[in-house]
Write a structure and sequence with these properties.
The structure is a single chain. This protein has helices at about 5-25, 45-65, 90-105, 150-170, 200-215, 215-220, and strands at about 30-40, 65-70, 75-85, 110-115, 120-125, 140-145, 175-180, 190-195, 225-230, 235-240. The chain has about 240 residues and is α+β, with helices and mostly antiparallel strands. The protein folds into two domains: about 20-125, Gnk2 domain, C-X8-C-X2-C motif (Killer Toxin P4, Chain A); about 140-240, Gnk2 domain, C-X8-C-X2-C motif (Killer Toxin P4, Chain A). The structure holds 2-acetamido-2-deoxy-beta-D-glucopyranose (3 copies). This is Gnk2-homologous domain-containing protein. It is found in: Secreted.
Length: about 240
């Protein structure tokens, strides 16, 4: 990513934090409208999509993940929603609800789209992507503050996130959060999280998280915090506790 996109991300993160305190659900971090195919108003795809989003809104909050498909080819639509592993069902519900409304505004006629929030992601497509790793859609967020000893800090970050990648892959909820003793000038501890969508197998989840970890040098080299966020998995770290236990 270019430095202008970094600036964009930093701006959004700060902005998101600010708005969250006012409205409850923060604005999206990022979205992608997949432009290759469109539908028109009142066609069968639109009503299938509406039904799918309704299902995801209903299905996702209790467990934190939902997936499904509605209709038949050529109007079939596939989708999933994932909430961050540590948030309450009510916050999950608010986030998925907001995501469904917002994606409709941002990508009104696209057959495929994906939108990310701090608390959830929502994705749909006319192609069956369920159970496949999304290798294409990634973005980064970073904490602008530098660390004083980047080599050892980066190494510790990798160590923590590799452990969390293993833990998340083998867990039922495909989510893990944890901490590591750091003992550096900035902080005594480092905090992290790793999460996959539940349609991935243990091996696929691990592979996705491993790819995310490999992007740390281009994302967040020597920074006090960062997120590598994809359509199938994401990782994050900070020197302060940023997830609920
Ligand atoms: C789909 O719609 C977008 C705007 O919403 C437009 O830019 C794009 O060219 C359209 N694609 C096709 C294949 O019609
Ligand atoms: C999500 O949506 C995008 C855009 O439609 C698609 O390319 C991708 O394969 C989808 N799947 C996942 C898991 O992100
Ligand atoms: C962090 O380090 C980079 C490169 O060394 C520098 O350009 C940047 O201004 C520093 N950022 C802060 C917040 O100190």
């Amino acid at each position: 990513m270019s430095s202008s996109q970094f600036t964009f991300s930093i701006y959004l993160l700060t902005f998101a934090f600010f708005l969250q305190t006012i409205f409850g659900v923060s604005p999206p971090l990022y979205n992608i409208c997949s432009g290759s195919e469109n539908f028109t108003t009142n066609d069968q795809y639109e009503s299938n999509l509406r039904k799918l989003l309704g299902n995801l809104n209903y299905q996702t909050p209790p467990l934190g993940f939902g997936l499904g498909s509605v209709g038949w080819y050529p109007y079939q639509t596939y989708g999933l929603a994932l909430c961050r592993g540590d948030i309450a069902a009510a916050d999950c519900k608010a986030c998925v609800n907001e995501a469904s409304n917002e994606i409709h505004k941002r990508c009104p006629y696209n057959k495929g789209a994906i939108i990310w929030y701090g608390n959830c992601l929502l994705n749909y497509s006319n192609k069956d992507f369920l159970g496949q790793i999304d290798n294409e859609n990634w973005f980064y967020l970073l904490n602008v503050h530098n660390v004083s000893e980047p080599t050892i800090f980066n190494q510790k970050t990798r160590e923590l996130l590799s452990q969390l990648a293993k833990d998340a892959s083998f867990s039922v909820k495909k989510y893990a959060a944890g901490e590591l003793n750091l003992g550096l000038g900035e902080s005594t501890k480092l905090y992290g999280l790793a999460q996959c969508t539940w349609d991935l197998s243990t091996i696929e989840c691990f592979q996705c998280l491993d790819d995310a970890i490999d992007q740390l040098p281009s994302c967040c080299d020597g920074k006090q915090g960062g997120r590598v966020v994809g359509g199938s998995c994401n990782i994050g770290y900070e020197i302060y506790p940023f997830v609920s236990a």
